[in-house]
Amino acid sequence: MTDLYRVLPEEMDNLVIKLGQPRYRADQLLHALYHESPKKISDLHQIPSTMQDALVTSGYTIGTQSEVHRITSEDGHTTKLLLKFDDDTLIETVLMQYSPSQDKTHPRSTVCVSTQVGCPMGCVFCATGQMGFEKNLKAEEIVAQVLHFASLLRQRGEHVTNLVFMGMGEPLANYDETIRAIRLLTHPRAFGLGQRSITISTVGVIAGIDKLADEDIQVKLAISLHAPNDVLRKKLVPTAGPHSVEDLISAAKRYFKKTGRRVTFEYALIDGINDSNKVAEELVQILKGNGAHVNLIPMNPTAGGFSRPARKRVLAFQQILRDGGVNCTVRVEKGSEIAAACGQLRTDVIKNITH
Ligand code: SAH
Ligand code: SF4
Q1: Is 157 exposed, middle or buried (0-12, 13-18, 19+ CB in 10 A)?
Q2: Range of the domain at 27
Q3: Residues 220 and 301 in one domain
Q4: 50 and 103 housed in the same domain
Q5: % residues pLDDT > 70 (the chain)
Q6: Residue 176 shares a structural domain with residue 204
């Protein structure tokens, strides 16, 4: 069985020709798939029923997903869904909306997708890391998360404007399916999202970063650094082993050199662990002078017993970076009261189901 949502436009051309149909049928199919939310092949009214039958007998399907749980933050700007696929896989996906700036009529609508169920990296402060690794998601399951929100937004005359790979899992540890999903979501004949509106966040899979720099896709890259030295980083990212902080910074420089796109370093600030003035000064030493941008994320509390620093501490940390010449912002918080940090909703819902 092959899900039509994993078929790239060029492959769709070959498929319709193989079925003895004219090439324009490929565009009809793609348009229906990416802009009309069909639930099954017989919903593809644009194509003749003989072709629908031929697709079914050739083993093509349209996978569906259902919402198991939906929570919306009090301000209505963040919506988090737990989606269930046909094989009972449960994943989280989040929509974050920002108010329109003066010259725009539509809000910025960013979808945060998952690429794996659980995560093999085991970061100690991350709810996904603590659930262990279950499986890699297929490209069609990544695409489905975006299309699910696209269809909800379409009903109110809005659309998805940005995409971040910051949900459950490590995208570069599921490289091929992640790239296939990006190709489908950005291809003008498929979903057509701008490549530059996409950010991939990685904990630092160096081979993946180098490979990504060579792809013909213009995505932005964020590297989750969390510490200025290996001793501290390994406490937070136990699987960081083979890659030192220095290796990550070199990989970011190579990515910039090849692509012309600067890498952002994400830094989850954890109370009493990686938020001291001394640590901030060390971070300045390793990052200054290379145009780095640091995005501080005051951590969302998870089961691991870690907590976020007081606001004063976050601002003091930021000031030290800025004074040292390192560009630094603090992540605008979205929906922490609905547990928007990756993996938390799934953990909470599964707990409620099983206890
Ligand atoms: N695996 C990738 C992408 C998914 S995590 C990565 O680690 O980059 C996306 C971001 O959320 C990462 O920067 C991660 O460090 C951060 N994150 C995970 N758990 C968090 C928590 N409890 N609070 C704040 N940020 C968290
Ligand atoms: Fe995986 Fe990213 Fe969570 Fe680490 S922070 S466990 S890499 S999802």
Answers
A1: exposed
A2: 2-61
A3: yes
A4: no
A5: 92
A6: yes
| Cβ-based neighbours of 87, under 8 Å, separated by 6 or more | none
pLDDT in tens, 92-137: 999 999 876 555 567 899 999 999 999 999 999 999 999 999 999 9
Domain end among 39, 61, 83: 61
Q: Is 92 one of the catalytic residues?
A: yes
- The residue ranking higher by pLDDT, 330 or 301, is 330
Q: How far is CA 151 from CA 37, 77, 96, 191, in A?
A: 7, 17, 15, 12
> Which residue's alpha carbon is at the smallest distance from atom 14 of ligand 1?
224
203 alpha carbon – ligand 2 mean position (Å): 7
The protein residue whose alpha carbon is closest to atom 6 in ligand 2 is 129
Q: How far is the CA of 257 from the centre of ligand 2 (A)?
A: 26
Cβ of residue 170 lying under 6 Å from some atom of ligand 2 = yes
Distance 130 CA to ligand 2 centre (A): 9
- Tell me the pTM: 0.94
Burial class (CB in 10 A: 0-12, 13-18, 19+), 40: exposed
How many domains does the structure of the chain reveal? 2
pLDDT in tens, 247-282: 999 999 999 999 999 999 999 999 999 999 999 999
172 Cβ below 6 A of ligand 2: no
Residues 299 and 267 in one domain: yes
